[in-house]
Amino acid sequence: MSITTTEVLLKIRPEAEWILTSDELSTIEWLKNDKDNNGIPTEVEVESARESMQSEYDAEQYQRDRVEGTGSIYPLVTDQLDMLYHELETSGSLTISGSWFNTVKAVKDANPKP
Fold it and tell me: What is the pTM of this model?
């Protein structure tokens, strides 16, 4: 995903009011400065913020990889609780060889943190 100019402006000038008719900063119509009276940001300021925001977004990719659409690739919490219950019921304890641990570990192994 690419960070848009709108997203950058909302981050660096959250209280300012403006109209942007395309993703180009040159199309901005500045309506009101933010509370610190910062005006229209420079291209350098916007690009620097965009790069920083993109780096943050990219660094969290592993978290998004663990989600498919609106549901997690982890089993539902109710299913995980059921796995835990049945493991406790049958073996009397939780182990690293149990179904819950192996299911969650498979997701974590497939989507490691960087």
Answer: 0.58
